[in-house]
Design a protein that fits this description.
The chain folds into 7 domains: about 10-205, Rossmann fold; about 210-380, Rossmann fold (3-Layer(aba) Sandwich); about 385-445; about 460-645, no CATH class; about 655-675 and about 685-790, no CATH class; about 795-940, no CATH class; about 955-1015, no CATH class. Helix content is about 45%, strand content about 15%. The protein has 49 helices and 34 strands. An 8-stranded mixed sheet has the order 4-3-5-2-6-7-1-8, with helices on both faces. The protein has a 6-stranded parallel sheet with strand order 9-18-13-10-12-11, with helices on both faces. It has a 5-stranded mixed beta barrel with strand order 19-20-21-23-22. Strand 20 (about 595) and strand 21 form a beta hairpin. The longest helix has 27 residues, at about 1175-1200. This is ATP-dependent RNA helicase HrpA. It is an enzyme of class 3 (hydrolase).
């Protein structure tokens, strides 16, 4: 701090001193004031001590007389007499009073200076000013050399400014021994001031007071609602009690406006009309407040907040009713909210309240609480420094370089938590740098004599090009709301002011009101402007104060070099600037409708706000105040995207979920940002290398270099990937995880080899472009293999050869996944050429494990014969001569050969093999796209049948594609023809095909399909060659129509006739091998030419017998069936349907067709005997059912797997013979049959 000395005044200071010395003031003393009784004691104390404390009740004359006493001491010449007041209105009114009593005018010998208004001159000796203004002057005059005396008035209020001034003066006095400080206080703890200034003398000046009787009338505390009712009732009863004591007005102290309104209503209803009930609180209009001081008749009851304790003296008060409660402003450093809780007042406040009724005579005070409650209360109210935000004080202290706040000589040092909170607010506003000193912005904020938040929005207004509007709003926020809402005219006031409301912003409403006022002020006279304000329920005084504040702020910002915008600013710019000052006053509406503010604070928009009805998603407020709950006052709708640019230094950012994007070669992640717990940014995609390069590098290595590479990988990476793929394939084939070194080792290799600056694809490209050597980044096979592999390549081939088609194999070692094991890739054109059996053998490297699994899956009774299982599995595979047909059948046969133990067929049908022990199939279209996949080849053949038929195409030049064939002029047909389609070698199978009455030569995609189609095609060609005979069989054969009638229970008559003719041609011409060359064709034509009609007549007789017998059996199986025979009848129906069914003539071998009448006769015989001896039939049924069930399961299994097994057909007819032996033995069997013979037959089944 700069040092100045009064011994060497500057030229301007000397002129000022001369002007003051020339100013003669003649104080006029009112001798009846108590303070003047102690005038000499006060003057003596001031002469002898640098600090004097003058203590006296309100009304003792301290404020008006002390400056005049200082004049008597010759003070006010070397410097002015500074006389501070807590409020501007008091400074102005006292200046007028003192000037009048000193015989001068305001602005001459006596002046005042308040914020934005300076009414002083060079000759001014007594200067009334607010305590805040004296603090502001210390910025330019840190020693207060402009003053020789400082009177700190109303020090008992212990405002923040007063405590700051007292601390400042304590530091200053040792350097200004000529300076005198007088501290005035009501009778509230004067000793504390004395102690602070090294036991400064205290002069007590007693006011004119009378004895006050205190009566305690406590209220019963219950729930909050009952307390309020009790409070109203208690006030009414107390006033009734006081009314009985005599004339005089009553002053009732209540905690707030709501309680005043409720009690006023209760008193008006209770008391006679001549009793006047008046409210008194800060938000009243000036006219309503002045009614309290106006003369009146009758009794007056004044209902007041604590404003009437010391600030205002209400005349005529003889009685006081004290609720003992007040709203005390308390800042919560936890929630950052200025709370206004209702609290019990301190003892000193209660005494002040009681003293209000002892000014004009003896008084009575009724306290609505008991004496014990009074004694338990604290002696004094906490000073403001212990219950407010300290940001403004800290800002000024740093600006004045007064050192750390913790070491500043406050009367009571603030709580360190409040200091820390004040620093946080300054940091929020950008006023501090990293060293906690003032930033450039902070120094600008300190130059503006307003709340730091308001100063911040002015600076932001300049940046946003909205300074003109922000000056208006800043001024509005610096003064009391000019809008009035009289208790009895609230609706009218709301209607009059509705035109200025902005539903999205109360700040916008302030701008509208300002524009309307300025427009009227421009056109109207002063009196008419006052009338306009009155008409619109506006305080003209406060509107003038708003205008004055605006003018002064405007001058200040211009002095700072800020520029007002000439064009109207956009609302977005205005609100962004406001947001810079109110970042900790934002809130977000949750889905449930409640607003949540900073740090989880639950709040609501104040009902007086125009925004309350709109309920926007995000709001900001000029202040958050807690009364009945936390309210946001003066609110506006804001957009969350405005917040981040303003609050970047305050946001808590969380970066999460990094991922690798191969397409862009970069690591991205998500960013969340919160401001005091509110989500400002959620899940924004970011370049992760920018915010977390080390973590991004690891993701790049693990997911990029070792996972999905960039679009154009560098040469070293391509080489490494090829090498890794080779080793991974070897692992998949051998189903081991210990061949390739683990992922961590590979990641560590790259981490060690890559420069630290490489964190993603672009940075890797830059390093390589700038000459980086990639040799250290190239892996070799030894580095990749953790251990060697002994298995041969032949055990795990890369292709699978079947039916002349070479199919690629792919290996995967992913247990539990759908692709685990060996996958064969099948072009859909080759699909139908395949059968499941070759794939049962998998690849040699997995075959032994599969056989072991099959043996171990056997029932224990069987499995015990094959121990140790691995040895038997190896022996089975070593002894198998070929690996063809069904693996399961081959294993069963070999185990039976080795041990004599028979394993029934189908025993493994229900076994679910591990995925890698079943071949997996992928069916691909011509472009290589996947059509379907799975481990059930027949199911894939069914699902892809249309694709397979469409994609299998014979070569364009193929000689095996012809239509309209009427004779064998096609040469010799080979069994199969190789050709290339889509770059893949396929096998085609030539066959004659019957197509809608014609015959064509086609190249088909599978051997079995071709065999079936060729038989039908040759039959169709034969019918064309012998068309006359075929027509005779169909139309002229005697008895065929009758047979068709008997067939109606089985199928369609026309279908039967077609099948009959086809069966005749099959039995005559195609009983042997189906011809594939012309010579064979001519041979069968010649051999069978004359046999068609005779064989047709022979077959007619046989089929006629079959159909008539089945008709009789079928009829016998109908009707009512005894319950005990239901199983037998069901078995007979199943047997009949298996013998005679649509198409049975073509399906049944001619030799077996001859046996059908015997089987049907056996069924008839069984039905007869069933009626006679059901128990015997049940015994036969028990013997046949296991074989029948096994047969049904085997037939279904073979059909599902597309297997044609002659051994199974043999078993099928052997079961029929077994039925004859059980139920109609007298009919005889074709061959010997028994359980043992059946068991041997089953052994051959695949």
């Amino acid at each position: 701090m700069a040092e100045h000395s009064n011994a060497h005044p500057t030229r301007s200071a000397a002129k000022a001193r001369a002007a003051r010395e020339a100013m003669t003031l003649r104080p006029d003393y009112a001798l009846d004031l108590p303070v003047l009784e102690h005038a000499e004691a006060i003057k003596a104390a001031v002469r002898d001590h640098p600090v004097v404390v003058v203590c006296g009740e309100t009304g003792s004359g301290k404020s008006t007389q002390l400056p005049k006493l200082m004049l008597d001491l010759g003070r006010g010449i070397d410097g002015m007499i500074a006389h501070t007041q807590p409020r501007r209105i008091a400074a102005r009114s006292l200046a007028s009073r003192v000037a009048e009593e000193c015989g001068t005018r305001v602005g001459s010998g006596v002046g005042y200076r308040v914020r934005f208004s300076d009414q002083t001159g060079p000759e001014t000796r007594i200067k009334l000013l607010t305590d805040g203004m004296l603090l502001a002057e210390t910025q330019a005059d840190d020693r207060l050399d402009g003053y020789d005396t400082v009177i700190i008035d109303e020090a008992h209020e212990r405002s923040l400014n007063i405590d700051f001034l007292l601390g400042y003066l304590k530091r200053l006095l040792p350097r200004r021994p000529d300076l005198r400080v007088i501290i005035t206080s009501a009778t509230i703890d004067p000793a504390r001031f004395s102690q602070h200034f090294d036991d400064a003398p205290v002069v007590e000046v007693s006011g004119r007071t009378y004895p006050v009787e205190v009566r305690y009338r406590p209220l019963v505390e219950q729930s909050e609602d009952e307390r309020e009712r009790s409070l109203r009732q208690g006030v009414v009863e107390a006033v009734d009690e006081l009314a009985g004591l005599g004339r005089g007005d009553v002053l009732v102290f209540l905690p707030g406006e709501r309680e005043i309104r409720q009690c006023a209503e209760a008193l008006r209803k209770h008391h006679p009309p001549h009793t006047e009930v008046l409210p008194l609180f800060g938000r009243l209009s000036t006219a309503e407040q002045q009614r309290v001081f106006a003369p009146h008749r009758g009794r007056r009851i004044v209902l007041s907040t604590n404003v009437a304790e010391t600030s205002l003296t209400v005349p005529g008060i003889r009685y006081v009713v004290d609720s003992g409660l007040a709203r005390i402003s308390r800042y919560s450093y936890r929630t950052k909210v200025q709370r206004l809780p209702v609290e019990p007042v301190a003892q000193s406040s209660a005494d002040q309240r009681a003293g209000r009724c002892g000014r004009e005579g003896p008084g009575v005070c009724i306290r609505l609480y008991d004496a014990a409650d009074f004694e338990a209360r604290p002696r004094f109210t906490d000073p403001e420094i212990l219950r407010t935000n300290l940001a403004s004080v800290i800002l000024q202290m740093k600006h004045l370089r007064l050192g750390a706040i913790e070491r500043f000589p406050f009367i009571e040092p603030p709580d360190p938590r409040y200091v820390k909170d004040g620093l946080k607010l300054l940091d929020e506003l950008g006023a501090l740098n990293r060293r906690q000193n003032l930033s450039r912005l902070g120094r600008q904020l300190a130059r503006l004599p307003v709340d730091p938040r308001i100063a911040r929005i002015l600076l932001a207004g300049d940046r946003e090009g909205a300074l003109d509007e922000l000056l208006v709003i800043a001024a509005a926020l610096s003064v009391q709301d000019p809008r009035e809402r009289p208790m009895d005219r609230r609706e009218a006031a709301d209607a009059a002011q509705s035109a200025w409301q902005d539903k999205r912003s109360d700040f916008g409403g302030q701008l509208r009101l300002w524009a309307a006022y300025r427009e009227q002020a421009h056109h109207l006279s002063r009196r008419k402007l006052q009338a306009w304000c009155h008409e619109h329920f506006l305080s003209h005084v406060r509107m003038r104060e708003w205008a004055d504040t605006h003018a002064q702020l405007r001058g200040l910002v211009r002095d700072m070099g800020l520029t007002e915008n000439t064009a109207p600013a956009r609302p977005v710019a205005i609100h962004r600037a406001l947001l810079s000052g109110f970042l900790s006053n934002i809130a977000r509406r949750e889905d449930g409708g409640e607003y949540v503010g900073p740090r989880g604070l639950k709040l609501a928009i104040h009902p007086s706000s125009a925004v309350a009805r709109q309920r926007p998603r995000w709001i900001m407020a000029a202040e958050l105040v807690e009364t009945s709950r936390v309210f946001a006052r003066v609110a506006a709708d804001v957009r969350p995207e405005w917040i981040e640019p303003l609050a970047g230094h305050l946001l808590k950012r969380r970066h999460r979920d990094p991922w690798w994007e191969a397409g862009r070669g970069k690591v991205f992640g998500r960013e969340d940002a919160t401001l005091y717990g509110l989500p400002i940014v959620t899940g924004r995609k970011i370049d992760y290398a920018r915010v977390a390069p080390a973590e991004a590098r690891q993701v790049f290595i693990r997911e990029g270099l070792l996972g999905e590479p960039p679009p154009d990988p560098p040469a070293f990476l391509r080489a490494n990937q090829d090498l890794i793929a080779e080793v991974e394939t070897l692992e998949a084939k051998t189903r081991r995880r210990d061949v390739l070194v683990d992922h961590e080792a590979l990641a560590a290799f790259y981490d060690a080899a890559l420069p630290a600056a490489v964190v993603d694809g672009p940075s890797l490209d830059r390093w390589l472009r700038d000459g980086g050597d990639d040799r250290a980044l190239r892996l070799d096979r030894d580095q990749l293999m953790a251990r060697g592999v002994t298995e041969g390549a032949a055990d795990y081939p890369d292709t699978f050869d079947v039916n002349g088609v070479r199919l690629p194999l792919r290996y995967a070692f992913t247990p539990g996944s759908e692709v685990d094991g060996v996958t064969v890739c099948i072009p859909v054109a080759a699909l139908n050429a395949l059968s499941p059996e070759p794939f049962e053998w998998l690849v040699p490297g997995l075959l032994e494990e599969k056989v072991v699994t099959l043996i171990r899956a056997l029932p224990k009774a069987l499995r015990r014969h094959f121990v140790p299982v691995p040895d038997f599995a190896r022996a089975v595979l070593e002894s198998l001569p070929t690996r063809e047909g069904s693996l399961e059948a081959a294993v069963r046969a070999e185990l039976r050969r080795m041990t004599g133990i028979d394993i029934p067929g189908g025993l493994w049908d229900e076994l679910v093999l591990p995925g890698h022990l079943q071949m997996r199939f992928e069916v691909l279209d011509e472009a290589g796209a996947l059509l379907d996949s799975g481990r059930d080849l027949p199911a894939l053949q069914r699902s892809c049948a249309d694709h397979a038929a469409r994609d299998f195409r014979a070569p364009a030049d193929s000689s095996f594609e012809r239509t309209g064939i009427t004779d064998w002029d096609i040469g010799t047909l080979p069994e199969r023809v190789p050709f290339v389609q889509g770059g893949i070698e396929l096998q085609g199978y030539p066959a004659l095909c019957a197509e809608q009455g014609a015959v064509a030569l086609r190249l088909l995609d599978g051997p079995e399909r071709a065999a079936i189609a060729h038989r039908e095609g040759v039959r169709s060609l034969l019918m064309k060659r012998f068309a006359q005979q075929a027509r005779h069989l169909r139309r002229g054969l005697e008895g065929l129509d009758r047979m068709a009638i008997d067939y109606r229970d089985v199928g369609d008559a026309d279908e039967f006739k077609r099948g009959f003719v086809a069966a005749v041609f099959d039995q005559v011409f195609l009983a042997g091998t189906v011809p594939r060359d012309r010579a064979s064709w001519l041979e069968i034509c010649e051999q069978g030419r004359t046999a068609i009609i005779p064989h047709g007549e022979q077959l007619r007789d046989r089929v006629s017998d079959i159909l008539s017998r089945q008709k009789r059996v079928r009829r016998a199986l109908k009707g009512n069936i005894p319950l005990g025979m239901m199983d037998s009848y069901q078995d007979l129906r199943q047997q009949l349907d298996g013998l005679v069914y649509p198409g049975f003539l073509l399906d049944t071998d001619p030799e077996r067709l001859a046996d059908l009448p015997r089987y049907l006769a056996g069924m008839a015989r069984r039905l007869e005997r069933l009626q006679q001896d059901p128990n015997r039939d049940a015994a036969g049924l028990a013997a046949i059912q296991p074989h029948q069930r096994r047969l049904d399961e085997a037939l279904a299994r073979h059909a599902r797997r597309a297997i044609r097994d002659p051994a199974l057909a043999q078993v099928r007819w052997l079961v029929e013979e077994y039925r004859i032996s059980l139920f109609a033995q007298d009919l005889g069997t074709r061959e010997r049959v028994s359980e043992k013979r059946l068991a041997r037959a089953w052994e051959a089944v695949r």
